[in-house]
Amino acid sequence: MMIVNEKNTGTKIDYATNGNYLVLGADDDLMLNLSKYERETEKQIDITRDMDGMLLIGTGQTSYFVAQVTIPAKDGTFNIDRCTLDLWSIEVPINEEQAAPENEVA
After folding, report:
1. From which domain of life does this come (predicted)?
2. How far is it, in rounded angstroms, from Cα 103 to Cα 90?
3. Which of 27, 43, 55, 65 is close enough to 71 for a disulfide, judged by CB 3.0 to 4.6 Å?
4. Residue 52 CB contacts under 8 Å (≥ 6 apart), including other chains
């Protein structure tokens, strides 16, 4: 099981894991094969939600920061248990109380 951290209070996005896959959203809105993103250095994947409620990878023109996945540097066979999923409230826009990660522009 992934390491999961809730970064603030409020409702978080539904998520599940299946093997190397992380599935986000109540209707399986976004599925990521995390082993595909493993590199020689740590990799972070930002998950955001736009005004229409669609999940996106990256920040771009989004209103809500939903999650950040951290995949540690490659160390043998991929193991999802080494990955971290940080979750933010899906109810708070980035420009209000929600604090984006340090590497994000709010």
Report:
1. Bacteria
2. 19
3. 43
4. none
Residue 93: its pLDDT value, please? 65
Backbone angles phi, psi at 29, to 5 degrees: -65, -35
Question: Residue 78 carries which DSSP code?
Answer: -
Cα angle for residues 98, 100, 9 (degrees, 5° grid) = 40
Retrieve residue 19's tokens. 């093997």
pLDDT at position 99 is: 46
Q: What whole-number distance in Å separates Cα of residue 42 and Cα of residue 51?
A: 30
Amino acid, res. 91:
E
Quote the CA–CA distance of 61 and 78 in Å, as a whole number: 32
What is the distance between the alpha carbons of residues 79 and 71, in angstroms, rounded to a whole number? 10
